[in-house]
TrEMBL record:
SUPFAM superfamilies in the cross-refs: MFS general substrate transporter
TM stretches of this protein: 27-45, 57-76, 82-105, 117-139, 151-173, 217-238, 258-277, 284-304, 310-330, 342-367, 373-396
Subcellular location per the Swiss-Prot or TrEMBL entry: Membrane
Protein species of origin: Paraburkholderia caribensis
Designated name of the protein: MFS transporter
């Protein structure tokens, strides 16, 4: 939750910051997107560090670093500083999400992993609840306190918990179930046996021996994830602005509306993932979640200037769709990249696809400056999301068929 607060609270700060610092929509969009430039470049190296030093040290260490970077956002005074800190924030957060994907893979098996990961990913949606409720209060009541603008207080107040929690995680987080102090020796053995059994039944030993960059599955999955993240960036970085233009009033009203839409979106995320969490359903339900997101993005263009209720409903639908889509995608991708390719494949897909996070806010901001409206930008991202549905239904199906043929050949081949 705090990771997504650090990357997304700039969307709420924008309501004051762009006026105080005289930033254009293009400057804001570029700064918001530069987070993902750092994210793309450092995702794979950080995850390799996790393999070497363990999840506890790396996840806690990068959380501490991005917490301090978020604190530094308090003192932004010009565009170059804004760009630099957003880039560094992406550098330090780069290994967190793929690192947790791998971390969960070492703890939970099968449908249990899908359910628990959906709860974990709901933290990204509840981050917007945190930003909305606390940000609305700070912008309205702390603006001018001690000579600082409200948006500066917001960055500071929302960053300090990350620094504290990073220290707590370093003290408490075990690398593997075997080191968990809250599990008895018998419970640790049960967890490890369950993971081994799942690996055997899912044929995890049948890994693709080709170099990772020549594996079509990597690029098909990267394309699908790119489309998912393009929609996520559009919703997260522009939802407060959409709600203001829809007529939700002051900062506190906008904050409550963002929070409410995200709570409903998080609940929808868990429901969709609970229904579609089995290995046989993940791809189809991931595509269905993407359809919900595409409907949300395109529908918002037609209602946000005319209906506050419809705007709120479509935002909630979009948050549910992006949350479920990302959760189901990673559980599906882990199955396709088992074995030797898993450790590098997960951060590689994350890094390639997160280019969407850089392109999307910059594109939407540029289109807004050029046309005076967000409509064209949102329609373009809705089309990208629709393309993602096609990739999930047909491109990923190609991986499934190829994997099935490979497994069938391996079963029929005589033992050497």
């Amino acid at each position: 939750m705090l990771a997504w607060v650090g990357r997304s609270n700039v969307a709420f700060a924008k309501l004051q910051m762009v006026v105080d610092l005289q930033f254009s929509e293009t400057v804001y969009g570029l700064g918001a997107g530069l987070f993902f430039a750092g994210y793309v470049l450092f995702g794979v190296p950080t995850t390799i560090l996790q393999k070497k030093f363990g999840a506890r040290a790396v996840l806690a260490g990068i959380a501490f670093a991005w917490g301090l970077t978020s604190v530094a956002m308090t003192f932004v005074n010009n565009a170059p500083t804004f760009y630099l800190l957003r880039f560094l924030l992406g550098v330090f957060e780069a290994g967190f999400y793929p690192g947790v994907v791998l971390y969960f893979n070492a703890w939970f098996a099968g449908e249990r992993r899908t359910r628990n990961f959906s709860i974990f990913h709901s933290g990204s949606l509840f981050s917007t609840v945190t930003i909305g409720l606390t940000g609305g209060f700070v912008l309205e009541h702390m603006n001018g306190m001690a000579g600082f603008e409200g948006w500066r207080w917001m960055f500071f107040a929302q960053a300090i918990p990350t620094v504290v929690l990073a220290c707590v995680a370093f003290m408490l987080l075990p690398d593997l179930p075997r080191g968990a102090r809250w599990l008895s020796a018998r419970e640790q053995t049960l967890v490890e046996d369950d993971l081994r059994h799942h690996a055997e039944t899912m044929n995890d030993t049948g890994d693709d021996e080709r170099p990772l960059l020549r594996n079509p599955a990597v690029w098909i999955l990267s394309a699908a994830y790119f489309c998912l993240l393009a929609a996520t960036a559009a919703l997260f970085f522009f939802s407060p602005t959409i709600l203001r233009e829809a007529g939700f009033g002051g900062f506190r009203e906008i904050g409550r509306a963002v929070a409410g839409a995200c709570v409903l979106g998080a609940l929808g995320n868990v429901v969709i993932c609970s229904i579609g969490g089995s290995a046989q359903r993940r791809r189809l339900f991931c595509a269905l979640a993407s359809v919900f997101t595409a409907v949300s993005l395109s529908g918002l263009v037609f209602v946000w200037h005319s209906s506050t209720a419809a705007t709120f409903f479509l935002l909630a639908l979009g948050f549910a769709g992006t949350g479920a889509g990302i959760t189901l995608f990673w559980q599906m991708a882990v199955g396709f990249l088992s074995g030797k390719s898993l450790m590098v494949g997960v951060p590689l897909i994350s890094s390639v696809a997160n280019v969407a996070g850089f392109v999307t806010p910059f594109l939407i901001g540029f289109v807004r400056d050029a046309t005076g409206t967000y409509a064209s930008g949102f329609i373009m991202i809705a089309c990208v999301q629709a393309l993602g549905v096609v990739v999930l239904l047909f491109g990923v199906q190609h991986i499934v068929r190829k994997r099935s043929r490979s497994d069938d050949i391996s079963v029929r081949s005589p033992a050497s």
